[in-house]
Hints:
mainly alpha
Amino acid sequence: MTVLLVVLAFSFAWSIGSHYTGACMGMPYALGAISARRALLLMAPLALLGAALLSGKVAQTVGEHLVDGQPTTLAEVLIVGVAFGVTAVYNRLRIPTSTIQILVGSVAGVAVGASLGVHWRTIGTLLVIWVAAPFVAAALGFAAAHAFARATGGDRALVVVGCCASFAMGANDVALASGALVGAGVLSPHRAGILCGVGIALGVLITGRPLLDRIAFDVVEINRPTAIAAQSVQAVVVLVAVVSGYFTSMNQALVGGMAGARPSAVHRRTLLGIVRGWVAGPPASFVLALVAALLGRWVGGADALAR
Length: 307
Protein backbone atom coordinates (compact mmCIF):
# COMPACT_ATOMS: atom_id res chain seq x y z
CA MET A 1 0.00 0.00 0.00
CA THR A 2 2.91 2.35 0.71
CA VAL A 3 4.31 1.77 -2.78
CA LEU A 4 0.89 2.52 -4.25
CA LEU A 5 0.72 5.78 -2.28
CA VAL A 6 4.15 6.86 -3.52
CA VAL A 7 3.20 6.06 -7.12
CA LEU A 8 -0.08 7.96 -6.83
CA ALA A 9 1.57 10.98 -5.19
CA PHE A 10 4.24 11.08 -7.89
CA SER A 11 1.59 10.75 -10.62
CA PHE A 12 -0.51 13.50 -9.06
CA ALA A 13 2.56 15.76 -8.94
CA TRP A 14 3.11 15.00 -12.64
CA SER A 15 -0.50 16.04 -13.35
CA ILE A 16 -0.05 19.25 -11.34
CA GLY A 17 3.04 20.15 -13.37
CA SER A 18 1.10 19.66 -16.60
CA HIS A 19 -1.83 21.68 -15.30
CA TYR A 20 0.05 24.86 -14.39
CA THR A 21 2.26 25.41 -17.42
CA GLY A 22 -0.16 28.01 -18.76
CA ALA A 23 -0.51 29.80 -15.45
CA CYS A 24 3.27 30.22 -15.20
CA MET A 25 4.57 30.59 -18.75
CA GLY A 26 1.46 31.17 -20.87
CA MET A 27 1.81 34.94 -21.14
CA PRO A 28 5.53 35.14 -22.02
CA TYR A 29 4.86 32.46 -24.64
CA ALA A 30 1.74 34.23 -26.00
CA LEU A 31 3.64 37.50 -26.46
CA GLY A 32 6.56 35.86 -28.22
CA ALA A 33 9.08 36.51 -25.47
CA ILE A 34 10.00 32.83 -25.41
CA SER A 35 9.26 29.69 -27.40
CA ALA A 36 7.10 26.92 -25.95
CA ARG A 37 10.06 24.56 -25.72
CA ARG A 38 12.28 27.03 -23.90
CA ALA A 39 9.42 28.06 -21.62
CA LEU A 40 8.93 24.48 -20.47
CA LEU A 41 12.68 23.88 -20.16
CA LEU A 42 12.97 26.93 -17.89
CA MET A 43 9.85 26.21 -15.88
CA ALA A 44 10.65 22.59 -14.96
CA PRO A 45 13.84 23.10 -12.90
CA LEU A 46 12.48 26.25 -11.26
CA ALA A 47 9.33 24.44 -10.13
CA LEU A 48 11.51 21.63 -8.77
CA LEU A 49 13.65 24.20 -6.94
CA GLY A 50 10.59 25.83 -5.36
CA ALA A 51 9.33 22.41 -4.28
CA ALA A 52 12.67 21.46 -2.77
CA LEU A 53 13.37 24.73 -0.94
CA LEU A 54 10.08 26.26 0.14
CA SER A 55 7.28 23.69 0.30
CA GLY A 56 7.84 22.25 3.79
CA LYS A 57 5.36 24.39 5.75
CA VAL A 58 2.61 23.86 3.21
CA ALA A 59 3.24 20.09 3.15
CA GLN A 60 2.81 20.03 6.93
CA THR A 61 -0.45 21.97 6.63
CA VAL A 62 -1.77 19.43 4.10
CA GLY A 63 -0.40 16.35 5.82
CA GLU A 64 -0.97 17.19 9.48
CA HIS A 65 -3.28 20.18 10.00
CA LEU A 66 -6.43 19.46 7.98
CA VAL A 67 -7.78 16.51 9.99
CA ASP A 68 -7.64 15.19 13.54
CA GLY A 69 -5.88 11.94 14.21
CA GLN A 70 -3.72 10.17 11.65
CA PRO A 71 -5.20 8.74 8.45
CA THR A 72 -3.94 5.31 7.44
CA THR A 73 -1.97 4.76 4.26
CA LEU A 74 -5.19 3.53 2.62
CA ALA A 75 -6.93 6.79 3.52
CA GLU A 76 -4.08 8.79 2.00
CA VAL A 77 -4.30 6.62 -1.13
CA LEU A 78 -7.99 7.46 -1.45
CA ILE A 79 -7.34 11.19 -0.93
CA VAL A 80 -4.61 11.40 -3.55
CA GLY A 81 -6.39 9.02 -5.93
CA VAL A 82 -9.57 11.09 -6.01
CA ALA A 83 -7.73 14.41 -6.32
CA PHE A 84 -5.51 12.99 -9.07
CA GLY A 85 -8.52 11.62 -10.96
CA VAL A 86 -10.51 14.86 -10.84
CA THR A 87 -7.46 16.91 -11.87
CA ALA A 88 -6.77 14.50 -14.74
CA VAL A 89 -10.30 15.07 -16.05
CA TYR A 90 -9.77 18.83 -16.01
CA ASN A 91 -6.42 18.41 -17.77
CA ARG A 92 -8.07 16.21 -20.41
CA LEU A 93 -10.71 18.87 -21.01
CA ARG A 94 -8.00 21.59 -21.03
CA ILE A 95 -9.86 23.55 -18.35
CA PRO A 96 -7.74 25.41 -15.77
CA THR A 97 -8.97 24.81 -12.24
CA SER A 98 -7.72 24.94 -8.67
CA THR A 99 -5.99 21.67 -7.77
CA ILE A 100 -5.65 23.00 -4.23
CA GLN A 101 -9.39 23.25 -3.75
CA ILE A 102 -9.86 19.81 -5.32
CA LEU A 103 -7.33 18.32 -2.89
CA VAL A 104 -8.93 19.94 0.18
CA GLY A 105 -12.35 18.68 -0.95
CA SER A 106 -10.88 15.19 -1.23
CA VAL A 107 -9.30 15.39 2.25
CA ALA A 108 -12.57 16.55 3.80
CA GLY A 109 -14.56 13.82 2.03
CA VAL A 110 -12.30 11.02 3.23
CA ALA A 111 -12.15 12.48 6.75
CA VAL A 112 -15.96 12.62 7.02
CA GLY A 113 -16.31 9.11 5.61
CA ALA A 114 -13.66 7.78 7.99
CA SER A 115 -15.17 9.61 11.01
CA LEU A 116 -11.98 11.62 11.43
CA GLY A 117 -12.40 15.12 12.78
CA VAL A 118 -11.93 17.83 10.18
CA HIS A 119 -10.00 20.95 11.16
CA TRP A 120 -12.74 23.24 9.90
CA ARG A 121 -10.94 26.25 11.34
CA THR A 122 -7.93 25.61 9.11
CA ILE A 123 -10.17 24.97 6.11
CA GLY A 124 -12.09 28.14 6.98
CA THR A 125 -8.82 30.09 6.93
CA LEU A 126 -8.03 28.60 3.54
CA LEU A 127 -11.48 29.55 2.25
CA VAL A 128 -10.92 33.15 3.35
CA ILE A 129 -7.56 33.17 1.56
CA TRP A 130 -9.08 31.66 -1.59
CA VAL A 131 -11.91 34.18 -1.69
CA ALA A 132 -9.66 37.13 -0.91
CA ALA A 133 -6.73 36.22 -3.17
CA PRO A 134 -8.33 37.14 -6.54
CA PHE A 135 -9.53 40.50 -5.17
CA VAL A 136 -6.18 41.27 -3.60
CA ALA A 137 -4.51 40.27 -6.85
CA ALA A 138 -6.90 42.50 -8.80
CA ALA A 139 -6.09 45.50 -6.61
CA LEU A 140 -2.37 44.85 -6.86
CA GLY A 141 -2.72 44.22 -10.59
CA PHE A 142 -4.35 47.62 -11.05
CA ALA A 143 -1.48 49.32 -9.20
CA ALA A 144 1.19 47.28 -10.98
CA ALA A 145 -0.33 47.98 -14.39
CA HIS A 146 0.11 51.71 -13.80
CA ALA A 147 3.67 51.12 -12.63
CA PHE A 148 4.49 49.17 -15.81
CA ALA A 149 2.38 51.33 -18.13
CA ARG A 150 5.43 52.51 -20.07
CA ALA A 151 6.93 49.08 -20.57
CA THR A 152 7.15 48.90 -24.37
CA GLY A 153 9.74 46.16 -24.69
CA GLY A 154 10.21 43.88 -21.83
CA ASP A 155 10.72 40.40 -23.28
CA ARG A 156 13.34 39.74 -20.63
CA ALA A 157 11.04 41.06 -17.89
CA LEU A 158 8.24 38.79 -19.12
CA VAL A 159 10.48 35.74 -18.92
CA VAL A 160 11.73 36.75 -15.46
CA VAL A 161 8.21 37.06 -14.01
CA GLY A 162 7.29 33.74 -15.63
CA CYS A 163 10.29 32.18 -13.92
CA CYS A 164 9.21 33.68 -10.57
CA ALA A 165 5.74 32.23 -11.06
CA SER A 166 7.25 28.82 -11.85
CA PHE A 167 9.25 28.84 -8.62
CA ALA A 168 6.16 29.92 -6.68
CA MET A 169 4.09 27.15 -8.24
CA GLY A 170 6.59 24.50 -7.13
CA ALA A 171 6.57 25.82 -3.58
CA ASN A 172 2.79 26.22 -3.48
CA ASP A 173 1.42 23.19 -5.29
CA VAL A 174 3.82 20.31 -4.70
CA ALA A 175 2.35 19.87 -1.20
CA LEU A 176 -0.91 18.70 -2.76
CA ALA A 177 0.95 15.50 -3.63
CA SER A 178 3.75 15.44 -1.06
CA GLY A 179 1.41 16.18 1.87
CA ALA A 180 -0.02 12.68 1.69
CA LEU A 181 3.47 11.19 2.05
CA VAL A 182 4.11 13.44 5.04
CA GLY A 183 0.74 12.64 6.63
CA ALA A 184 1.31 8.90 6.29
CA GLY A 185 4.82 9.19 7.74
CA VAL A 186 6.41 7.84 4.57
CA LEU A 187 8.82 10.75 3.99
CA SER A 188 9.88 13.97 5.67
CA PRO A 189 8.48 17.22 4.19
CA HIS A 190 11.80 18.02 2.51
CA ARG A 191 12.28 14.60 0.90
CA ALA A 192 8.63 14.40 -0.12
CA GLY A 193 8.97 17.85 -1.71
CA ILE A 194 11.98 16.76 -3.75
CA LEU A 195 10.34 13.52 -4.92
CA CYS A 196 7.10 15.17 -5.96
CA GLY A 197 9.02 18.16 -7.34
CA VAL A 198 10.63 15.76 -9.80
CA GLY A 199 7.13 14.62 -10.73
CA ILE A 200 6.04 18.21 -11.33
CA ALA A 201 9.10 18.88 -13.49
CA LEU A 202 8.43 15.82 -15.65
CA GLY A 203 4.79 16.81 -16.01
CA VAL A 204 5.85 20.25 -17.23
CA LEU A 205 8.30 18.86 -19.75
CA ILE A 206 6.42 15.88 -21.13
CA THR A 207 2.69 16.63 -20.98
CA GLY A 208 2.50 20.36 -20.20
CA ARG A 209 2.12 21.82 -23.70
CA PRO A 210 -1.73 21.65 -24.08
CA LEU A 211 -2.46 23.85 -21.02
CA LEU A 212 0.34 26.20 -22.05
CA ASP A 213 -1.42 26.73 -25.38
CA ARG A 214 -4.84 27.01 -23.72
CA ILE A 215 -3.88 29.90 -21.44
CA ALA A 216 -1.67 31.57 -24.03
CA PHE A 217 -4.15 31.71 -26.89
CA ASP A 218 -7.69 30.93 -25.70
CA VAL A 219 -8.16 32.70 -22.36
CA VAL A 220 -6.61 36.16 -22.54
CA GLU A 221 -5.60 38.96 -24.86
CA ILE A 222 -2.76 40.86 -23.28
CA ASN A 223 -0.04 43.38 -23.86
CA ARG A 224 3.36 43.42 -22.19
CA PRO A 225 2.57 45.81 -19.31
CA THR A 226 -0.54 43.78 -18.43
CA ALA A 227 1.35 40.51 -18.55
CA ILE A 228 4.26 41.76 -16.45
CA ALA A 229 1.92 43.29 -13.89
CA ALA A 230 -0.40 40.28 -13.62
CA GLN A 231 2.32 37.66 -13.36
CA SER A 232 4.34 39.69 -10.86
CA VAL A 233 1.24 39.97 -8.67
CA GLN A 234 0.56 36.26 -9.03
CA ALA A 235 4.02 35.32 -7.78
CA VAL A 236 3.84 37.75 -4.84
CA VAL A 237 0.37 36.62 -3.69
CA VAL A 238 1.26 32.93 -3.89
CA LEU A 239 4.65 33.25 -2.17
CA VAL A 240 3.18 35.29 0.70
CA ALA A 241 0.67 32.48 1.29
CA VAL A 242 3.40 29.82 1.10
CA VAL A 243 5.69 31.55 3.58
CA SER A 244 2.72 31.71 5.97
CA GLY A 245 2.24 27.93 5.68
CA TYR A 246 -0.91 28.17 3.56
CA PHE A 247 -1.56 27.78 -0.12
CA THR A 248 -3.72 29.48 -2.71
CA SER A 249 -4.71 29.04 -6.34
CA MET A 250 -2.17 29.96 -9.02
CA ASN A 251 -4.90 30.37 -11.63
CA GLN A 252 -7.12 32.52 -9.42
CA ALA A 253 -4.21 34.79 -8.49
CA LEU A 254 -3.27 35.13 -12.16
CA VAL A 255 -6.80 35.83 -13.39
CA GLY A 256 -7.32 38.29 -10.54
CA GLY A 257 -4.12 40.08 -11.43
CA MET A 258 -5.14 40.27 -15.10
CA ALA A 259 -8.62 41.52 -14.26
CA GLY A 260 -7.16 44.33 -12.18
CA ALA A 261 -4.48 45.23 -14.68
CA ARG A 262 -6.73 45.20 -17.74
CA PRO A 263 -10.32 43.95 -17.34
CA SER A 264 -10.87 43.69 -21.09
CA ALA A 265 -7.97 41.22 -21.36
CA VAL A 266 -10.03 38.32 -20.04
CA HIS A 267 -12.38 36.52 -22.43
CA ARG A 268 -15.62 36.54 -20.49
CA ARG A 269 -17.13 33.41 -21.99
CA THR A 270 -13.98 31.37 -21.37
CA LEU A 271 -13.60 32.88 -17.91
CA LEU A 272 -17.15 31.82 -17.05
CA GLY A 273 -16.26 28.26 -17.97
CA ILE A 274 -13.19 28.41 -15.76
CA VAL A 275 -15.21 29.79 -12.85
CA ARG A 276 -17.67 26.93 -13.24
CA GLY A 277 -14.71 24.58 -13.01
CA TRP A 278 -13.52 26.25 -9.81
CA VAL A 279 -17.01 25.98 -8.30
CA ALA A 280 -17.61 22.37 -9.37
CA GLY A 281 -14.20 20.90 -8.54
CA PRO A 282 -14.22 20.87 -4.70
CA PRO A 283 -17.78 19.47 -4.27
CA ALA A 284 -17.08 16.80 -6.88
CA SER A 285 -13.90 15.70 -5.15
CA PHE A 286 -15.63 15.80 -1.74
CA VAL A 287 -18.47 13.54 -2.88
CA LEU A 288 -16.19 11.09 -4.70
CA ALA A 289 -13.83 10.92 -1.71
CA LEU A 290 -16.71 10.43 0.71
CA VAL A 291 -18.07 7.54 -1.35
CA ALA A 292 -14.59 6.01 -1.64
CA ALA A 293 -14.07 6.30 2.13
CA LEU A 294 -17.41 4.68 2.93
CA LEU A 295 -16.61 1.82 0.56
CA GLY A 296 -13.17 1.49 2.15
CA ARG A 297 -14.70 1.21 5.62
CA TRP A 298 -17.31 -1.26 4.39
CA VAL A 299 -14.63 -3.51 2.88
CA GLY A 300 -11.84 -3.07 5.40
CA GLY A 301 -13.67 -2.36 8.64
CA ALA A 302 -13.92 0.64 10.96
CA ASP A 303 -10.15 0.88 11.44
CA ALA A 304 -9.23 0.74 7.76
CA LEU A 305 -8.89 4.50 7.35
CA ALA A 306 -7.97 5.84 10.80
CA ARG A 307 -5.23 4.87 13.26
